[in-house]
Structures are given as C-alpha cells and as structure tokens.
Amino acid sequence: MKILKVLNIEKYYGNKSSLTKALNDICFEVEKGEFVAIMGASGSGKTTLLNCLSTIDKVTSGTILVGDKDITKLKGKELNRFRREELGFIFQDFNLLDTLTAYENIALALTIQAIKGKELEKRIEKISQELNIVDILKKYPYQLSGGQKQRVAAARAMITEPKIILADEPTGALDSKSAKMLLEKLDYLNQERKATILMVTHDAFTASYTNRVIFIKDGKIFHEIYRGESSRKEFFDKIIDVVTLLGGDYSDAL
C-alpha cells in the first residue's frame, strides 16, 4: 500500500531576477512500513523536501498525496488536523518542552487528540518499554542525556500512531553510542509496529539502518538504492559507493 506519493513537485525561492530552484521535478513513492533515508550534500534540497512533506513549506507546483489526501491543498483547521493526527516529527534538537517531564512531553501529543485516562497510560507504558525510557519518565529534559531526549522525542512522535514519521537529522546532535541506540530503536519500531519512517540525513552510518536511500543532488533525485537482503554493513558499503560517485559535492556531507 502506497502511503506517500510525491508527484512532480517543484519549489522556487526568490523572484524573476533571482530565482533559485530548490526542488526540480521530484517524484517518488513510499510504501506503508518502509524506512527510507533521504541523503544529499548541504544545499541539495533534502531539507526543503522534508519541509514540503511536513507542510512547513508549500510547493510551487506538483502534488503530495498522503494516503489519498492531497496535502498541498490543505488549509486552516484541516491542515492543523492533518499535522496533529497523521504526521509524527523527530527533530535534530529534540524540541522537548523544558517545563514538562518526559512523561508529560509524550502525553501532550495524546491529550491534544483528547485521549485520556487508561488508554493514555497504556500507550505511554508500551512505547516507553519499546524505547527503553521507562526509568526516566519522571525526569525533566535538563536531567536527560542527548540520547535519552531523542528517544523521548521518538516516543512523542510515535505515540499518536501517525501515518508517517518525519525525522530531520535525528542523530545529528548525538554521540556515536547514543546514535546507534536510537537507530536500533527506530529500526525496531519500523519492524514491530510497521511504522513508516522518512529520515533526512547526511550520514551513511545512519542511512544504513533504513530499507532504501534516495540521493538528492541539485534539487533532483540523483540515484536510489534498496537494501534488499544485504546486511547493514553491505548496505553501508553501497551507500558509500554512491557518495563516492557524487564526489566533491558530498565532501561536506560526511
């Protein structure tokens, strides 16, 4: 089942005298339960693409379908409902509320959807066990390590059971040990919960945990590779091969 269809999207910035084409006729699809990485050097358009998929930015032309809904046409309350109910976000800098405990940060996403009482507690207990954060739920963000904060952020993104999780450089602020633990947990959620995850990253190690990598260069899809039956190490090597093919354009991305 196709959960996401991106059809001929383009994004321009500026005016006629100084026009920048950030996205140039991008097309791809994502199946339900896929874990997909989007890679590219700085300025390649990968963040612009994520912003358009998350409705933070509007496309200049083209169509983005989530399920059977054209999200490029959503406005007002309908747009807010879509963001709240069908998207989950994991940011590089966590975006946790400092005045709330880890439990309250996760619960907030559910209370906005009017889910309360035992159902709320049951969902938080389950996701907390899956992400190994049960023992830190009463702590505030300032009491947590970067890895713990990001796992709380992942729990917050997953708890509403959205159609797609959008992750923007989720390991960017983490040390290698914390990054590996987060990626293993995201992989678990993808395998066990069939969560559909679309992750922007510039890091080949991070991308090697996914099922597929889409490479973007100059606002266009340059190449894509599938993991298939490859081991994570073999897939990592394939990713590095493409990065090498991209050459100098990628020197700042690794």
- Beta-strand percentage range: 25-35%
Query: What would CATH call the homologous superfamily?
Result: P-loop containing nucleotide triphosphate hydrolases
Average pLDDT taken over every residue: 91
How far is it from the N-terminal to the C-terminal residue, by CA? 33 Å
| Physical arrangement of strands within the biggest beta sheet | 6-7-8-3-9-10
CATH architectural label: 3-Layer(aba) Sandwich
Task: Summarize the main sheet.
Answer: 6 strands, mixed
**Low-confidence sequence ranges:** none
Question: Which percent range fits the helix content?
Answer: 25-40%
The CATH class: Alpha Beta
Order of helices and strands: EEEHEEHEHHHEHEHEEH
What is CATH's topology name?
Answer: Rossmann fold
Topology, please?
Layout: E1 2-15, E2 18-31, E3 35-39, H1 46-53, E4 61-66, E5 69-70, H2 76-86, E6 87-90, H3 102-111, H4 117-130, H5 146-158, E7 164-168, H6 176-193, E8 197-201, H7 204-207, E9 212-217, E10 220-226, H8 232-246
Parallel strand pairs: 3-8, 3-9, 6-7, 7-8
Antiparallel strand pairs: 1-2, 1-4, 4-5, 9-10
Helix pairs in contact: 3-5, 5-6
Structure notes:
The protein is α/β, with parallel strands linked by helices and 254 residues long. The chain is built from eight helices and ten strands. It has a single domain, classed as P-loop containing nucleotide triphosphate hydrolases (Rossmann fold). 37% of the residues lie in helices and 27% in strands. Strand 9 (212-217) and strand 10 (220-226) form a beta hairpin. The longest helix has 18 residues, at 176-193. The chain is globular, with a radius of gyration of 18 Å. The chain starts with a strand and ends in an 8-residue tail after the last helix.
